[in-house]
Amino acid sequence: MIELKSLTKNYGSFTAVDSIDLSVPDGELFGFLGPNGAGKTTTLRMIAGILQPTSGTIHLAGIDLDRDPLAAKSKLGFIPDRPFIYEKLTGAEFLRFVAGLYGQDGTKVEHRGRELMALFDLEDWADELVESYSHGMRQKLIISSAFIHRPQVIVVDEPMVGLDPKAARILKDLFREYVRRGNTIMMSTHTLEVAENLCDRIAIIQSGRIRAIGTIPELRAEAMGSGLEEIFLKLTGETAARDAMEVLDA
Ligand code: ATP
User: Fold this and answer.
1) Is there a domain that residue 56 lies in?
2) For the chain, what is the domain count?
3) pLDDT tens digits, residue range 185-219?
4) How many other CB atoms sit within 10 Å of the CB of residue 244?
5) pTM listed for this prediction
6) Is the minimum distance from the CB of 82 to ligand 1 under 6 angstroms?
């Protein structure tokens, strides 16, 4: 479960995240949508404990992140939008390293790491240095590392970027199965088709505030639109492909 109360982040005098209240229960896959610069990454990085909020509270699996950061973070797996990994570790070493950060080692974790890598077709690369991995392979390794310690909550920034269609499909299945088992996922994405097909509920954020929240049918009713793209554009006041012809003609 993820609970945000009046969560706010200021960068100087600029408010990037503006008093967000949100509750994502156990067993839910929650989508976080919004235009560029809306505050999605800032929110997710605060939940992951990487950015300090200006004010407000974050609870992960019932634990206050500010009061008991180690306990709260032990419940969490974070998949960032850019897969930075130590180049001089092999894939298997990286998973071992991440498991170790959570105080886990031994044959069970080793087995789990190999299984996760096999799931993403990385088994032949397990003992190769990360520096030889492609972007998509790094992304798959980061995703595997978020699952290695069996967290209850996973926070994901743009999970599908760089994944080939097969890996994207595997990831969708993995996410659905993971929440079916009572865990929680909060995921940002610009891929509306992914949000529409994968998420139980969606929030649309703009200028640091939640503009709409609900299931797809609920959002559809609110925006009187048909598809999520139309709903998104209506709620965020964007005009689609505005004046493209004029720009090209200019
Ligand atoms: P995108 O879809 O483009 O990834 P986003 O919704 O994830 O966008 P954020 O990265 O959270 O948006 O940024 C929210 C706002 O905060 C933006 O206006 C951005 O310029 C600003 N911002 C982000 N990081 C900083 C920083 N370190 N210092 C100052 N402003 C920042």
Assistant:
1) yes
2) 1
3) 999 999 888 899 999 999 999 999 999 999 988 88
4) 9
5) 0.92
6) no
Is there a domain that residue 97 lies in? no
Q: Which domain holds residue 18?
A: 2-75+151-249
Cβ(47) to ligand 1 under 6 A? no
Separation in Å, CA 115 to CA 122, 123, 141, 151, 166: 10, 8, 12, 16, 17
Is the residue at 134 inside a domain? no
Choose one of 36, 41, 46 to mutate for the ligand 1 pocket test, by most ligand atoms within 8 angstroms of C-beta: 41
CB 138 less than 6 A from any atom of ligand 1? no
Predicted confidence at residue 122, as pLDDT, reads: 96
Q: What CATH number does the domain containing 207 carry?
A: 3.40.50.300
> Is the shortest distance between the CB of 42 and ligand 1 below 6 Å?
yes
Q: Which of 186, 229, 237, 194 is nearest to 38 (CA)?
A: 237
| CB of residue 9 inside a 6 A radius of ligand 1 | no
What DSSP line would sit under 32-101, residue for residue?
Answer: EE-STTSSHHHHHHHHTTSS--SEEEEEETTEETTTSHHHHHHTEEEE-SS----TTSBHHHHHHHHHHH
Distance CA 245, CA 108 (A): 59
Burial of 126 (0-12, 13-18, 19+ CB in 10 A): middle
- 149 CB less than 6 Å from ligand 1? no
Which band of pLDDT confidence, cut at 50, 70 and 90, is reported for residue 243? Answer: low
Report yes or no on 61 lying in a domain. yes
Is the pLDDT confidence value at 43 over 80? Answer: yes
CA of 38 to the centre of ligand 1 (A): 7
